[in-house]
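=== Structure Prediction Worksheet ===
Name of assembly: unnamed complex
Input type: mixed (protein and possibly other molecules)
Chain count: two
Listed entries:
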Amino acid sequence: EADIYQTPRYLVIGTGKKITLECSQTMGHDKMYWYQQDPGMELHLIHYSYGVNSTEKGDLSSESTVSRIRTEHFPLTLESARPSHTSQYLCASSEFWGDEQFFGPGTRLTVL
Amino acid sequence: GQSLEQPSEVTAVEGAIVQINCTYQTSGFYGLSWYQQHDGGAPTFLSYNALDGLEETGRFSSFLSRSDSYGYLLLQELQMKDSASYFCAVRGQGGKLIFGQGTELSVKP
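=== Predicted Assembly ===
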């Protein structure tokens, strides 16, 4: 079954740690996205990718980085986590621009 | 700049009809989408309007007026499970989606 996965679902870490949030999709989509969402607020695009070896920064400035070495995999890395990074991170993919985006279940990150 | 406005919350009773409005200002416009999100879970796609008019999918309909920079989501025969947040999103330049702040819909018995 085609789907989009995120791990971990929940993560609590201390300040200064390096973390990688995983995102994988089995739909063969070229377009992938990372959004940041605080409780009760809108989704903010922080990174996106046109395809393999292509990454772009989104509209919300973020200290995270991403990579796209394989079509199905789009991990997000924080080199040194801070309490201000506490949020929910949602990964999504789509076949075309502006098309229906399929979202993963999200990772709830808490930095102490 | 780019901005979307939608009401922060709406309350309705089971079986009723509710309309959630969305007005937008963008530097480029290619379509308006609607997403549903239950209690911080994954947003799920509901509809997409690229052209003016009404699109109907079961109990949900979505409308777009490009000249008025306005759209709405219409939910009919409301059910308790429809209680969720609803986001409008504009497809702007570069194909990226810009989301509104979301409307929290509460359906009462």
